[in-house]
Amino acid sequence: MLPSLNNPECQVGRKLGSCATETQVILFFISLYLVAIGQGGHKPCVQAFGADQFDEQHPKELKDRSSFFNWWYFTMCAGCMGTLWILNYIQDNLSWVVGFGIPCAVMIIALLVFILGTWTYRFNVKGHGKSPFLRIGRVFVTAAGNRQAETIQEETSGTLPPQISQQFNLISLDTKYHSSVDEFFNTGSFLNKALLAPDCSIKEGNVAGSVVEVEEAKAVLRLVPIWATTLPFAIVFAQAPTFFTKQGFTLDRTIFPGFDIPAASLQTLIALAIVVISPIYDRIFVPIARAITRQPSGITKLQRIGIGIFISIFNVIFAALVEMKRLQTAQEFGLVDEPDATIPMSMWWLIPQYLLLGAAEVFTMVGLQEFFYDQVPDELRSMGLALYLSIFGVGNFLSGFLISVIEGVTGSDGHDSWFADNLNKAHLDYFYWLLAALSVIGFTLFICFAKSYVYNHKRISRG
User: Fold this and answer.
1) What pLDDT, on a 0 to 100 scale, did the predictor assign at position 47?
2) What are φ and ψ of residue 343, in 5° steps?
3) Which of 304, 312, 308, 346 is nearest to 326 (CA)?
4) I need a labelling partner for 340 at 20 to 30 A (CA). Which of 17, 124, 129, 384 fits?
């Protein structure tokens, strides 16, 4: 909008670097980084803050909190669909000023609505007076310092001191952690060493507080295997806006004569699947499952995550089969050496892989959000959701690293790599089969860790 930044020499369709002034480029990248900073503050906190409005000690509100994650993701995807359908058209055909102005106005309205609700929000975080990072960090440091010591049971000849047994039984009635001394000391024996004094005797003083701090550290440590085994799903997730779109670009995308759907707009199929499946899951599947399992959320969080990972395996398998069909069609019609040619194959072949990915997101993405929110110490719930988001950040980096390695290995000696610029000479199908194998390995490991995972809440059973 600013006339001083408007370069009349720039023509529509020219690259940014070829006509933009240095000031424009700087402003452009500042804007992108502001979006990243805003997302970093908004994404993990909005879900944690919204879920905090429900009292987990109240049975009905506990059920409603599980639905909150479903409907939050539903509305987010519905908003993305509106953006891809409406704003993309406005920006490409009417005005970029209007295209950016509309979301700007919407965000201002949203901020005002959020502020108007200030008097009704619940702020019920209960702390122990110390920073949760300090408490958990101190446990790891103390346990590392006592690493040469034997376990507490061995130090006490198998008999736990009365001060630990009595005080643990008292706090177990008022916390969400393990309900017995034996269960506590049979898990995470390394961290239990944080209860020992430097001389390897049992610490005196606030033993109860120490037990809670050790259990908080165990809760965070138990998340690591779940975090790691969901990374293959994140790598598969990273292919939708990249290689899925690249596949679609080569196919016949004609809806009716004179109108071709943009390849990038095929991603709306993922959002469409989520918008359709989420209400079905929340209003039909969960009540049926709840009646069978007696779980407030119908199925456990880890079961939900696992179902989504399982679906994603079939998603990438189907993508590999479609790519094999696309390459075969290109060869049959003699289009292998024509990278810009449209393959006589309908884009509708891609619909199943987009819809399957949307279905997988309904289970895994929402399940991960609820899982990492619920299983961290109360004061770290926003950090828990940030940990969930980091799965997909790391997954994108791993995807890029994997592609770079394969590119270097398969493209050596003048050969076309799996990711050749001419997609008709590439082998995305090989890459998809590799991702399918990684997904199977990740899913198998996930099942192993999920079965042995012990939820923090006493009322929730094992995975």
Assistant:
1) 79
2) -70, 130
3) 346
4) 17
